[in-house]
Write a structure and sequence with these properties.
8 strands, 2 helices, alpha/beta, 128 residues
C-alpha cells in the first residue's frame, strides 16, 4: 500500500490527470510477469507549493523560461515490496509524471520512506 505525496508548483497543468496517470501506471506495471500491485492499493496526494526561490529570484507564478518545474515525491512503502519493486515504483512514477512533456525527469526527486524495524511507530508502539 504505497502512499505517494507529490509536491510541485500550483501552475503545473493538469495535476488531477497527472495523479490519476501515476496511480493507473502503478497498476498497469508488471514485475516478473505479475502486476506490480493490485488495483486500488496506491494512494496519491498532490501538495501545492505556493512559491519557489530559484536562481536568487522569488517566483510566485511559474514562468517556464525562468524556472524549471521542480517536483518532489515522497513515497511511503511498507515491507511487502522488494528493493526491485521499490525501484520499479519510483521509475513508474517518474515516467507517468514526465509523460506529458510538461515535467522533465531531471527535475523529479523521489524520496522513499520505508518502514524498517525500530523506525516505525504502529499499533501504539515502536515496532521491532
Amino acid at each position: 500500500m504505497p502512499f505517494i505525496k507529490i509536491s510541485a508548483l500550483q501552475e503545473v497543468p493538469n495535476k488531477d490527470t497527472l495523479m490519476q496517470n501515476v496511480e493507473q501506471a502503478l497498476y498497469d506495471r508488471q514485475l516478473r510477469d505479475a502486476p506490480l500491485m493490485p488495483e486500488n492499493m496506491a494512494t496519491c496526494l498532490w501538495q501545492t507549493l505556493d512559491s519557489i526561490v530559484h536562481k536568487g529570484e522569488i517566483n510566485h507564478v511559474f514562468e517556464k523560461e525562468k524556472a524549471e518545474v521542480p517536483v518532489f515525491v515522497d513515497l511511503y512503502v511498507n515491507r511487502v515490496f522488494s528493493h526491485e519493486g521499490i525501484c520499479l515504483i519510483m521509475e513508474t512514477i517518474a515516467d507517468a509524471l514526465s509523460a506529458t512533456g510538461e515535467i522533465n525527469k531531471k527535475n523529479i526527486f523521489i524520496h522513499v520512506h520505508e518502514g524498517n524495524p525500530g523506525f516505525i511507530y504502529i499499533n501504539g508502539a515502536v515496532s521491532y
